[in-house]
Amino acid sequence: ISKHIDCRIVNPHTRKEVAAHEVGEIWLAGESVTAGYWQKPEVNQETFEATILDEAGQPSQVHYLRTGDMGFIKNGDLYITGRLKDVIIIRGKNYYPQDIECSVEMAHPAVRKGCVAAVNFADSEGVTVVLEIKKKSLDKTLNFETIRTQVKEQVAADIGLPVDGVYLLHQGRINKTTSGKIRRRKIKEQIERGQLVCLTHPNRRTVIARNYVKNGLDVIRDREQRGQLIRYSSNLLNSMITTTKSTVKF
User: Fold this and answer.
1) Which domains, and CATH codes, for the chain?
2) Which one of 47, 188, 194, 230 has the fewest beta carbons within 10 angstroms of its own beta carbon?
3) pLDDT tens digits, one per residue of 59-103
């Protein structure tokens, strides 16, 4: 942490500093911190003019920027654990979606790393998981129900939370920002609106077609012919692999 920055770790609800090494919201003050947004006084008061309360409940003289990031300080280094808006609160306890998503990634080898989202709905004391399946893992031997079961068991063992639903997606289908970050709130909206396009099990014809493409490319050396086969086979596979808009939880 730069000596020119006043960095504090604060409980976002009590607005008091947390104990050493404890996770809280990161608040910043210093000459390099902007004064606020143009002509947005209400937002500026909440975000750029935050004050820390002491033990007597008195506000600090210094105004801080509320970053919205959660983290902790250890040995003078700042560690960021996630975003405040993404924190899942169940029965008064904070759960970080990154921890749940990491647990899901370890549940089954077909789960694509970095392509998992964990969200919570207001009427539930569990989490809902959305994940991508590796393209190379999609064959007739892959059992979707086994994946769902193992995800639920893994999260229960690691995090201690029940999993309400597990949605399986094609590789590259999970909602991300342009920089590759998981858009959890957008994914939650997709579930609520029934807009999540889920994966169904590939049928036998799809497996045969994939093998045909692989074997065909092995023997065709001409670049133009290979390109034609790839385009034709891609259209063929897209017509065979069926998807469905799911509005129910599994």
Assistant:
1) 5-83 (2.30.38.10), 88-193 (3.30.300.30)
2) 194
3) 999 999 999 999 999 999 999 988 898 899 999 888 999 999 999
